[in-house]
Amino acid sequence: MNPHNTSRRHVLGAGLALGATALSAGAAAATTAPSAGAAGTLRIGDMKIARLGYGAMRITGEGVWGEPTDARTCRAVLRRALDLGVNFIDTANSYGPHVSERLIAEALHPYPKGLVIATKGGFTRAGPDRWSADCRPEALRAACEGSLARLKVERIDLYQIHIPYEDSTGELAGLQKEGKLRHIGISNVRAEHLDKARALVQVVSVQNRYNVADRGSDAILATCERERIAFIPWAPLGKSGRDSTPETGARANLEAVARERGISPQKAQLVWLLSRSNVLVPIPGTSKVAHLEDNVSAAALRFTRAEMQRIG
Ligand SMILES: NC(=O)c1ccc[n+]([C@@H]2O[C@H](COP(=O)([O-])OP(=O)(O)OC[C@H]3O[C@@H](n4cnc5c(N)ncnc54)[C@H](OP(=O)(O)O)[C@@H]3O)[C@@H](O)[C@H]2O)c1
After folding, report:
1. Per-residue pLDDT band at 9 (split at 50, 70, 90)
2. Range of the domain at 35
């Protein structure tokens, strides 16, 4: 079902039942709803996205394994994301595995124009919370073909590879030439990986763990800023994985600023990322509509220079 059809039906229904007054009340409500577009936009290759996206790893079972406990709500979260102007969704064949991609297609296909779905390959799964890398060219090709089928697309907008070895990146270049991949991104990389991958293909995005308490990718973020490559920080709320830098108190400082601003700590973490660099595209993950709305409402805020200095 097309989410835009849903909201349009909703507005038209309200108008028919309650007349013009209800319609203008609806319009006023719509203007106060959070909008991902308030974060500004970023070009990824020839695509333009709102700089606040949605991470679809959380619409799976415990340990990113199997079906979610409430698939109906997960589909509602995906539709609500689009209603709120999110037009960048991050997923991977390994989330479930296959569950996240399948739910995205169930909820959103046929996709509205301008929606960018980024997926990934290179990890296999043996059970809850168990991940192992498999970036062999033949494995990547099979993963890519599977994602094309599950997402019901002829070409993947952004295909990200976990750990870009030379032969695996070469395989992606081949898939791109065949028209199956629009753009290529890399994930979980150090600066030298980025250099090597860029020698083989045009890399439009880097996806590394990065948040207020994990600055391990500051150097690669600087490169992305210089080269205008999108940096997609995973675990923007610090939930999955482990911090790669020592504790500095930045998270506690940020929570103090959040209290003063009267916003949730989660929202504050997203505001920090949006304020930190204009190539950052946070992709907070959630399985709840209320959390999604809180996260998207971060798009309209920025911390002042003084607040950023205080957070550290
Ligand atoms: N490239 C990689 O190797 C890699 C690795 C991990 C993740 N990722 C991507 O990055 C995305 C984000 O990472 P993540 O999902 O692991 O971590 P995250 O975004 O830092 O945190 C998600 C967690 O925070 C909770 N949450 C979200 N919004 C909230 C709010 N407003 N208030 C309170 N709790 C909130 C969610 O629970 P509820 O469901 O209860 O809201 C969920 O448990 C993933 O979805 C995935 O697309 C990529």
Report:
1. very low
2. 14-311
